[in-house]
Design a protein that fits this description.
Elements: E1 2-3, E2 10-11, E3 25-30, E4 34-36, E5 42-50, E6 55-62, E7 69-74, E8 78-81, E9 85-93, E10 99-109, E11 123-124, E12 130-133, E13 143-147, E14 155-158, E15 162-170, E16 176-183, E17 185-186, E18 200-201, E19 207-210, E20 220-226, E21 229-230, E22 238-241, E23 245-253, E24 263-267, E25 269-270
Parallel strand pairs: 4-10, 11-17, 18-25
Antiparallel strand pairs: 1-2, 3-5, 5-8, 6-7, 6-9, 9-10, 12-14, 13-15, 15-16, 19-22, 20-21, 20-23, 23-24
Length: about 300
């Protein structure tokens, strides 16, 4: 109402003020919600459920601490997410300038399986194979194995020294881990040695064969044979011998189970009796009161 201050005349009119704050209703569909070692990107698709005017599209990423939005793209309903985080799809309605949005959280799992390999033992003469066992490895899902030998089982048997690798893959997230183990080998043979060999005679009726100077890494054990037959009960480093013949020594090393090359000694004997010849034997008489016996 307006009144003239001189004439006192007045007039009235009215208007209706309306309000339109209806926000667009939007939605997000995604090819997944978790990034893994196998899934390195996720497709995000925004859609409009309802809107009055023309839409403007914005994809952004929300800071979880401050709620600030970093604009990632504009004018596209699709966005490819390659990092974990909170993503937002914003639609602005040209009719009233109102904004509608929807959020989606993309997580990430890049956890590698933990590998444990047992059975990595040294190859020796006594232990010619080693079983490498990775079955104690752990992960989130089912584990698969791939060895450098081409085998795909949790355990493998090896008979050669060297480096062996195993790659373990977790079915839950497709992540893999690799471990290298080294198999060593000790097949060093001991060296047999014998001292004390001499010829048996009437004066030397027994000799002692001594193997104490043999060279080994661990504790030695001894096998003695006489004329190709093992001498029972004789396993010490010395052997008393009173008969000629062929004696053989084999030394076994407790450290690796390896045996020496056989060492052969020939024990000889000389018990040949001397042949006695005496001359000068004659009869003693009154005229031959002494004689000389000559041997």
């Amino acid at each position: 109402t307006v009144t003239h201050n001189v004439t006192g005349c007045s007039d009235s009119d009215s208007v209706v003020v309306t309000q339109n704050t209806t926000k667009p209703v939007v939605d997000i569909t995604a090819s997944g919600t978790e990034l893994t070692c196998e899934i390195t990107s996720i497709d995000l698709y925004g859609s409009i459920v309802s809107i009055q005017g023309s839409p403007t599209y914005i994809w952004g990423k929300v800071d979880d601490l401050t709620d600030d939005v970093t604009v990632l793209s504009q004018g596209e309903i699709h966005y490819e997410a390659t990092e974990p985080g909170s993503y937002i799809f914003i639609v602005i309605d040209s009719r009233n300038g109102c904004e509608g949005h929807e959020k989606i959280i993309i997580s990430q799992d890049l956890t590698k399986p933990e590998i444990m390999v047992t059975g990595n033992e040294e190859l020796t003469c006594a232990n010619e194979t080693a079983v490498l066992d990775a079955s104690g490895s752990s992960g989130q899902g089912e584990l698969s194995y791939e060895w450098s030998t081409g085998e795909d089982t949790a355990t493998i048997e090896v008979s050669e020294a060297g480096e062996y690798s195993v790659t373990v893959t977790d079915s839950d997230n497709g992540c893999s881990n690799t471990m290298v183990v080294e198999v060593t080998q000790d097949i060093t043979k001991p060296t047999a040695a014998i001292t004390g060999n001499a010829e048996l005679t009437c004066a030397l009726e027994s000799i002692t064969l001594d193997a104490s100077t043999s060279v080994v890494q661990g504790t030695p054990s001894y096998v003695w044979t006489y004329n190709d037959v093992v001498i029972d009960g004789e396993s010490s480093e010395t052997l008393d011998v009173n008969a000629p013949g062929t004696y053989e020594l084999t030394v076994i090393d407790s450290d690796n189970g390896c045996s020496s090359e056989s060492l052969v000694v020939e024990v000889t004997q000389d018990i040949t009796q001397p042949e006695i010849i005496i001359t000068g034997n004659a009869e003693l008489t009154c005229t031959l009161e002494s004689i000389t016996l000559d041997a």
